[in-house]
What does this fold into?
Amino acid sequence: DDIAAAGYEGIELFDGNLLDYEGRLDELRAGLSGAGIVLVAGYSGANFIFDDVLGEELARIERVAAVIAELGAKHLVVGGGAKRTAGTRDDDFKRLGAALEKVMEVARRWGLTAHYHPHLSTIAEGPETVRKAFRETSIHFCPDTAHLAAAGGNPADLIREFRDRISYVHLKGFQAEPFAFTPLDRGTLDMKSITHALRDIRFDGWITAELDAWPDPKAGAVASMKFLKSDSGLF
It folds into this structure.
């Protein structure tokens, strides 16, 4: 209800929240319908590089795919690629790529589009490691502007570079000192350059304004929507 009141038309949910509703999806469907919003995507994370647990990880992702497909979502987003304590091995990116190809197979079975979300604390964070990951897979790229910036990347440049693989986007503000994710109207990330890049590539898909945590979540959502409707935004 708060998200709808802030002016948004859809939401994305994490896998744990989604799987809490297995067997009683009508409750979640009613909540969405009552608020007047749709489920756009579901997100799941995994290690992806360890053969002995990959099957279990993919089984969970399949459960998430089944739930979001039943609820009408179109996008399955995954993040991950574990960092080993002893450091990344030469073939870890190949392992990640092979696992992401399996995620794409899961998505196709349920009529979904699969996306990989580079994330801090994984082996694909900044520009070079993101490029390494995408050389090993054909999965779509879901750029998270804050994570890319925090890892030393220029989100606007990466959006232009991977324009042909972007069909869903996470917009999130970032503050370098002290480290924090923020609403879109504040922080050190040049959000205007990112909205310009999205216009330049003629992006016309769903965009999630994401905010991991904020003292007043509704106020954060309202601030981000206000930015999106400003001259610097997208609408």
